[in-house]
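Q: what sequence does this backbone want?
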């Protein structure tokens, strides 16, 4: 470090730039297609219900939750939770996001291996998110490198979680687009719009992986310099 400046921070700059771009992209694309109503007038909640039913998942309930782009599938309670814009909206964006979350439910039902691995990593990833930086900083302050490396190992679990999330998200989007065609929820041209929304969302996960890997490299460099 030079007069309070950490030169390893430079490693993060490309990842942070990609993150800012990805966040702006998803907000822009989602807002655009949120204003494009589907020709059949099907709501996001109804689209998700049709996708679930076509895969025999009649027991999975669908709930509305507050927030924007807070949509997710909870495998522990077997509940698909959709934000208000998605749940009630009949837009291309609403239907695309709803079908994507239904895709996660299908993954869980079929025992899709990457999602099983990701779910198994949740406890250690949460632990790593909460403790890794605390251990690293504390270890550097008291000059106990074993504590620093423990923090790095915990952060590595976070990175692994982010990496395994990529195929899970890409696969859910692929399933969603196929279901939208197969079940007949959207017309061909509308599916292209839904794909643009899901591709923009996928970019945020790519950015998250890029940031996590960059942070891990940065931690390793800091630890090396202190050894």
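A:
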């Amino acid at each position: 470090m030079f007069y309070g400046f950490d030169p390893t921070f430079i490693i993060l700059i490309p990842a942070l730039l990609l993150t800012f771009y990805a966040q702006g992209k998803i907000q822009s694309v989602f807002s655009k297609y949120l204003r494009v109503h589907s020709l059949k007038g099907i709501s996001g909640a109804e689209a998700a219900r049709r996708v679930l039913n076509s895969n025999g998942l009649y027991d999975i309930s669908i709930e509305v939750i507050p927030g924007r782009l807070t949509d997710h599938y909870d495998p522990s309670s077997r509940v698909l939770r959709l934000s208000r814009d998605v749940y009630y909206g009949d837009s291309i964006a609403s239907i695309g996001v709803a079908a994507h979350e239904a895709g996660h439910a299908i993954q869980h039902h079929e025992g899709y291996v990457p999602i099983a691995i990701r779910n198994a990593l949740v406890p250690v990833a949460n632990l790593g998110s909460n403790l890794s930086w605390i251990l690293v900083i504390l270890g550097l302050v008291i000059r106990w490198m074993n504590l620093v490396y423990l923090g790095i190992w915990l952060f590595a679990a976070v990175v692994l979680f982010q990496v395994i999330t990529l195929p899970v998200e890409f696969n859910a989007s692929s399933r969603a687009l196929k279901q939208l065609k197969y079940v007949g929820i959207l017309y061909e041209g509308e599916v292209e719009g839904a794909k643009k929304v899901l591709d923009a969302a996928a970019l945020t996960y790519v950015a998250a992986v890029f940031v996590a890997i960059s942070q891990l490299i940065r931690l390793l460099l800091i630890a090396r310099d202190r050894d």
